[in-house]
Write a structure and sequence with these properties.
With 610 residues, the protein is mostly beta strands. It is built from 1 helix and 49 strands.
């Protein structure tokens, strides 16, 4: 049988002190079963050193340029200390506070989805959801697609940014001499006995000149200089053929002005491949809807676009160091059982983690082919990310919101491991909404996730697994950004705020900060107590008031409700109490903008005889 901690002398006073609330918020366990350093309610307070509680810092308003859908806040750095700010609200772009047109201003920009941007060398690239844009510090315009040369199209791939990647060339006139400009193929590879079409283009001298074309083929077994005539001279600049040959062949295209007897120019494709059968790996993913992409990142000197609602499971990858060239052969599809789209891609340890709503995958490699080719691995086939803005790197993990709650990815293995994710919200699980518009940021070893619909934010000290919370009518932040060590957020109606490290106000206003302890039984659960006094160890930066409520067996009497005046610097404040019961809990409410800190509390009580 357990022994009592105290001698039951009704005349003897006892003091129970609590100076560490380092385990933070717990809304899942009953108030009687919590640890002494856990709290039933912890709103608008942060946990500081040694478990002290300090009024949480707020957010200051930077700009509110227009009413409308928040779509982005970006910076273009001209130097390490000089930058332009771009705010996107309701499909309109504001550069340094001035509304700025895109190109000629006639483009129709989508207004219902967020945008992302990355700075790549001397330009800012914006995935607008209506086309890839670029900003060079002077003008904002759509990217001019790179027009690959013929052999680049054949061996690297046609450019997915072009309206018609396989037919982007044209014959032009006004040149000094007649010359073949290039050729295009209907496909990079062809299977045995399957048709392929070649189309040739020229630079003519005069617009009225009529040209004739000749197409020839040569197999590796043919002697040097010998070509089989596939189609003799004709004014048609296209040639379609099939062949039973498998391997590579050389193709020669010749051009002359009609009426001439000899070729004026020749163009040779040294290697065109014919395969025995169709190879699924060679199937090209259509890039017709690439302009829908509203998300972007840089990885190994390539831009990656995704967020195409027509093909939500596809990513488009640019050519090396060429952000205006997206070879269609580089595109990758992330297949899932549920045929889901990609919600978020996070760069982690030089690799990419690709989330869908119910899966977590990894993407490795630096190039389409070669010594380090692209390949995909399923990391978890049942847990994914449902809110794109919540997937953030937190130390050695990635934390994100899933259908099951807030989880973190623990490892990046090359084989599927369903145990490589774990929940981190067990203390507050029932409090966490499953909303796709949630957003998060990481700052000062905290993972801060905001739920705009509830106007509430939860903060996880991810090194310790401890939660706190914020509530305020302004907490509707949907997008978050990190520049120069500072956090910036964009609210639902387009305003931009900065996380403030000096002030507790949220956009110039303040909301109550609340602490509610567990039901303390002072390790005497079966003994009745007579509470006498509450001692509070508090400090503040300016005079303020704190409301105190002490509940005895979950009941609040008028004699246990107080408002006390707090003066600057740390001090101990005593409040007289009255009441008898088995448990006592303390609730503190602070309603102004003083920097209040709660360093500890103590309860004076007497034990009644059994």
């Amino acid at each position: 049988m357990a022994r009592s901690r105290y001698y039951h002398d009704p005349s003897l006073k006892h003091l129970e002190v609590y100076q560490n609330f380092g385990l933070g918020l717990n809304t899942e366990s009953s108030t009687d079963n919590l640890a002494d350093n856990e709290l039933v309610e912890l709103t608008n307070f942060d946990i500081r050193a040694r478990g002290a509680l300090r009024r949480a810092k707020g957010y200051k308003l930077l700009s509110h340029l227009a009413q409308g859908k928040a779509q982005g806040y970006f910076r273009f750095y001209k130097s390490p200390t000089e930058f332009d700010e771009i705010v996107v609200i309701g499909g309109k772009f504001y550069v340094n506070g001035v509304e700025t047109p895109v190109g000629d201003g006639k483009a129709d920009i989508q207004t219902d989805r967020p945008m992302e941007a990355v700075q790549y060398y001397d330009k800012l690239y914006i995935a607008s959801g209506s086309g890839l844009m670029e900003y060079d510090g002077e003008t904002l315009n759509f990217v001019t697609p790179y027009q690959p040369k013929s052999l680049e199209s054949l061996y690297i791939g046609t450019n997915g940014l072009l309206p018609n990647p396989n037919d982007y060339m044209e014959t032009t006139s006004g040149h000094a001499v007649l010359k073949i400009k290039g050729v295009t193929f209907s496909s990079r590879y062809v299977s045995q006995n399957e048709p392929v079409t070649i189309k040739a283009y020229a630079e003519k001298v005069n617009a009225n000149d009529v040209l004739e074309w000749k197409f020839e083929r040569r197999l590796p077994s043919h002697k040097e200089g010998y070509y089989y005539v596939g189609r003799d001279w004709d004014t048609d600049n296209t040639y379609t053929f099939t062949t039973g040959w498998t391997g590579t062949m050389e193709i020669k295209v010749s051009v002359r002005k009609k009426g001439s007897e000899v070729a004026v120019d020749e163009f040779i494709i040294p290697h065109f491949t014919i395969k025995p059968t169709d190879d699924p790996a060679d199937e090209e993913i259509s890039s017709a809807s690439i302009d829908n992409c509203n998300r972007i990142l840089v990885h190994w000197d390539r831009l990656i676009l995704y967020g195409d609602y027509a093909q939500p499971d596809v990513i488009y990858i640019s050519h090396l160091k060429n952000p205006a060239y997206f070879p269609v052969t580089n595109s990758q599809r992330f297949l899932t059982t549920n045929k889901e789209g990609i919600t978020k891609i996070v760069r982690f340890r030089d690799n990419l983690v690709v989330f869908t709503p119910t899966t977590t995958q990894a993407f490795y490699g630096k190039a389409p082919i070669g010594d380090d080719p692209y390949f995909r691995v399923m990391l978890n086939s049942s847990i994914g990310c449902i809110a794109p803005e919540t997937a953030k790197v937190t130390g050695n993990y990635i934390t994100f919101l899933s259908y099951e709650g807030v989880y973190r990815l623990k490892s990046l293995g090359y084989t599927e491991n369903k145990a490589n994710v774990e929940p981190v919200d067990l203390q507050i699980r029932s409090e966490i909404p499953k909303h796709e518009d949630a957003s998060a940021y990481v700052y000062d070893n905290h993972y801060c996730i905001t739920f705009p619909q509830e106007k509430k934010q939860y903060r996880l000290m991810y090194d310790y697994g401890v939660w706190t919370s914020l509530e305020h009518e302004k907490l509707d932040y949907e997008l978050t950004y990190f520049y120069d060590g500072n956090v910036y957020l964009q609210g639902k109606n387009g305003r931009v705020v900065q996380a403030d490290v000096t002030d507790v106000q949220i956009e110039g206003t303040v909301t109550p900060a609340i602490i509610q302890t567990k039901n303390f039984d002072f390790l005497e659960p079966y003994a009745k107590k007579k509470v006498k006094e509450l001692h509070l160890l508090l400090e503040t930066n300016k005079p303020t008031k704190v409301k105190v409520f002490v509940y005895i067996d979950d009941k609040l009497s008028m004699r246990n409700q107080h408002e006390i005046d707090i003066v600057p610097e740390q001090d101990t404040y005593q409040v007289a109490l009255a009441g008898r019961g088995h448990t006592a809990s303390v609730r503190l409410v602070h309603e102004d903008d003083a920097h209040l800190q709660v360093n500890g509390l103590g309860v004076v009580f007497k034990l009644k005889r059994p």
